[in-house]
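hey m, so remember when u said the tokens were messed up on ur end? i reran from scratch. heres the input so u can diff it against urs
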Amino acid sequence: MQLSHRITHLLDGGSDGWEIFNRARAMIAAGTPVTELTIGEHDIRTDPSILAAMDASARAGHTGYASVPGTDALRDTIAARVEDRTGVTTTRDNVLVTTGGQAALFAAHMAVLDPGDRALFIDPYYATYPGTLRAAGARAEPIPTHSREGFQPTRSALMAACPGAASLLINTPNNPTGAVYAPGTTDAICEAVREHDLWLISDEVYDTQIWNGTHLSPRARPGMAERTLVIGSMSKSHAMTGSRVGWVIGPAEAISHMINLSTDTTYGVPGFVQDAALFALEEGAPLEDKIAAPFRRRRALTEARLASQNTIRMIPADGAMYVMLDIRTTGLSGDAFASALLENHHIAVMPGESFGHSAAGHVRVAMTTDDDSYDQALATLVSFAQELAARSS
């Protein structure tokens, strides 16, 4: 008996990018303390008020099958939030609630791709992107970016890649780089997908974590609402990673078909969890700002810590909960540096190579531990890099 080609080729013969994370967790399980700066998991838990709303809903009986597209109240609230932030008319018919942003990504690509289609994505990328596209039956093809350009995709690279493709996946604010796409970048993306008739899937789960500039949803650009699917989530904005509440925003026809897909796969999100998400969204910007505040502080801590040295270069991090550090002066790859840092100092960061070829020679640092521990770990990382660079020279 053989397994399907689809399932056995999700990684296309490569790595899933999680080796350092898995090693760090194994060390912790064996009793070795490790400072984990690997994944985008808040160091604070879901706000007690949200948990209270979840508990009250469950105890009131909302524990049976919930509406598969999402409850009307939650879809209406998500639609109003999106319309308020983008100016694009949005109703519940444009909203599908999903089991987290990852399910939203899968549903979006299943909606717009046929087997064998070329599906584009920007490199560096979140580790699940290529596998998600392959799971949808597509040929996953990266568009490279460059560290020296802040990992912003260029018009020339987009125009070269888009002919003959079916879709383009973007992510701003960006994981892993922290880049927020500039207006010119967004314009180039929209121009490329319109000219070559692509679907655009825009992953905007970090839209509440903006440190510099402004988040611009490409769905709001002329001629884009009918060809754009936007991915949203409660995970990053409201520290609800384990609750698994996400959504897709798109044309009503596309959403109606994705509702059928949800019926045949997840069969919706638990009602009491949806009610908690509704409560959280109705708390508005003050709660979102509270969740984002630690990462804004730690980004400033990072800039201050790196200001007095020239061994490590920080890529401009204008959003999200990560910083990308260029460590090529050490003479090591991102993989080798992250491995040595874990082995010698019990600090876990993600190698840039976990996120594609464009980030080789970099490491991604998740700003996801308390301020003092974070600053101490960063100081150790800088000192270690300086030692390595001195030996290399």
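this time it looks ok to me. The two ends are 55 Å apart (CA to CA). if urs says something different then somethings off w ur setup not the seq
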